[in-house]
């Protein structure tokens, strides 16, 4: 799950909604409000981020083209995640909203009938010509809320993947070369340890270590394993090489001092800040950090690469725009979504360190940002996106973090952690009803 630094704002919760059937297609709805004067939009990106800047531009364009005022409210990721079903079943619901992709989030809301079926809008605007392959998987959900097939319920306009970030100045200081293979990576980490430097910045209390664990899983996993794990297409073998390799490697890297045991209480922001301030020379995390590193580490030589020797990488489409079924302004909501996919908005995103999916490469003026986009384009070209490890169940994010904390602090063995993960995964999938 890709989570950024967020700004809090209040939400009002209503009564929980029970599961209902999937909603009909929004563009044919007869209850569209005539001549609306405003539209309500929620998202949780910061104003100075690449996405925040791009979407602010989209709001300006929308208001100029339609004459309709945008009532924008910035919400936190956790507010929307924890209260989405209640809010979308109330009068507080926005007309269009950023939401996290995946079975346990957007898929759940789609299966509850809380999101508008976007199939007609996809045809009208041709979004399926822009959003293809694994980028499209996170926008489509079947009647059980499982991603990858069925109707469209969400539209992304950017991508994300996890990469290795390197503080090249620290590498140069210790005479260590930037690694290009996995063997070179472990060799570089060993040299840093020998010099008294812990190489990897980690935040085990939140997503950074689970993303590293999943990247190691992907080093040994094939498409069948990924489909079984993410889309319940077959059974996950928790004694298989991908799981064993990843979990043992994390334990090995802790034992060798590549990862600090003190990182068990650190969150994602702590890990990012520790890389920014030069405490650690390496950080494996999402593309959403890139614009912050380039702006907050001015004067430091920061570089990146996809994880060495990887055929699959952690990542997916970005978060998705959804239109709540309760909205009476669905046509306007769809128009706003379409503007976020316009070349002008996409170019703005790319020039501020984001990963647009429809930008003009010639319009990206910053060389390092252009290189970052080209790296992601290569990931898409080679079908390398391997999604995220917490998606299969609504509770697995916290359960995975907790198990990895036990692994790092030594309170559970590799076998105990794998058994715990297997039990939590299987129970979550069974409770969700995702599988027949």
Q: How many strands, what sense, and barrel or not for the largest sheet?
A: 4 strands, mixed
Cα gyration radius (Å): 21 Å
Estimate what percentage of residues fall within beta strands: 5-15%
Total number of domains? 2
Q: Which structural class is indicated by helix and strand composition?
A: alpha+beta
Q: What is the CATH class name of the largest domain?
A: Alpha Beta
Helix count?
Answer: 18
Fourth-tier CATH superfamily name of the largest domain: Periplasmic binding protein-like II
**Total number of β-strand segments?**
10
- Report, as a whole number of angstroms, the end-to-end distance: 26 Å
- Reading the helices and strands in chain order gives EHEHEHHHHEEEHHHHHHEHEEEHHHHH
Taking all residues together, what is the mean pLDDT? 90
Helical percent range?
40-55%
The oligomerization state is: single chain
Q: Per CATH, what is the topology of the largest domain?
A: D-Maltodextrin-Binding Protein, domain 2
Low-confidence stretches: 1-30
Looking at the overall shape, the CATH architecture of the largest domain is: 3-Layer(aba) Sandwich
Task: Based on Cα principal axes, name the global outline.
Answer: globular
Order the strands across the largest sheet as they lie in space.
2-1-3-10
Protein name: Extracellular solute-binding protein
Pfam family, one: SBP_bac_1
Signal peptide: 1-23
InterPro entries: Bact_solute-bd_prot1, SBP
């Amino acid at each position: 799950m890709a989570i950024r630094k967020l700004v809090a704002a209040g939400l009002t919760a209503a009564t929980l909604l029970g599961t209902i059937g999937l909603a009909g297609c929004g563009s044919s709805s007869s209850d569209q409000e005539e001549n609306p004067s405003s539209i309500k939009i929620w998202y949780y990106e910061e104003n100075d981020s690449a996405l925040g800047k791009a979407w602010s531009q989209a709001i300006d364009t929308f208001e100029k083209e339609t004459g309709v005022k945008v009532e924008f409210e910035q919400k936190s990721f956790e507010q929307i995640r924890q209260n989405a079903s209640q809010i979308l079943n109330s009068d507080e619901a926005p007309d269009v909203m950023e939401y996290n992709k995946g079975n346990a989030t957007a898929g759940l809301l789609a299966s509850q009938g809380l999101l508008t079926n976007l199939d007609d809008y996809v045809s009208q605007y041709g979004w399926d010509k822009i959003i293809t392959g694994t980028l499209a998987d996170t926008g489509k959900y079947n009647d059980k809320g499982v991603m990858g097939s069925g109707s469209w319920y969400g539209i992304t306009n950017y991508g994300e993947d996890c990469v290795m970030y390197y503080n090249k100045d620290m590498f140069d200081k210790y005479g260590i070369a930037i690694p290009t293979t996995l063997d070179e990576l472990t060799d570089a980490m060993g040299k840093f340890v020998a010099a008294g430097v812990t190489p990897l910045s980690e935040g085990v209390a939140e997503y950074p270590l689970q993303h590293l664990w999943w990247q190691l899983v992907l080093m040994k996993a094939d498409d069948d394993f990924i489909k079984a794990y993410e889309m319940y297409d077959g059974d996950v073998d928790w004694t298989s090489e991908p799981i064993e390799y990843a979990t043992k490697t994390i334990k090995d890297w802790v034992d060798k001092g590549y990862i600090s045991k003190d990182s068990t209480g650190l969150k994602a922001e702590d890990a990012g800040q520790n890389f920014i301030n030069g405490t650690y020379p390496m950080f494996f995390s999402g593309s959403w950090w890139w614009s912050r590193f380039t702006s907050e580490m001015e004067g430091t030589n920061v570089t990146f690469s996809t994880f060495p020797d990887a055929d699959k990488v952690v990542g997916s489409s970005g978060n998705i725009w959804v239109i709540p079924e309760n909205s009476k302004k669905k046509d306007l909501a769809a128009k706003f979504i379409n503007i976020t996919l316009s070349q002008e908005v996409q170019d703005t995103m790319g020039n501020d360190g984001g990963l647009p999916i429809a930008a003009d490469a010639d319009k990206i003026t910053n060389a390092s940002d252009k290189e970052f986009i080209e790296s992601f384009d290569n990931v898409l070209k080679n079908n390398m996106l391997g999604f995220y490890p917490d998606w299969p169940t609504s509770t697995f994010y916290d359960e995975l973090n907790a198990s990895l904390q036990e692994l790092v602090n030594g309170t559970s063995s590799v076998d105990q952690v794998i058994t715990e993960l297997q039990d939590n995964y299987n129970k979550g999938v069974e409770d969700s009803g995702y599988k027949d």
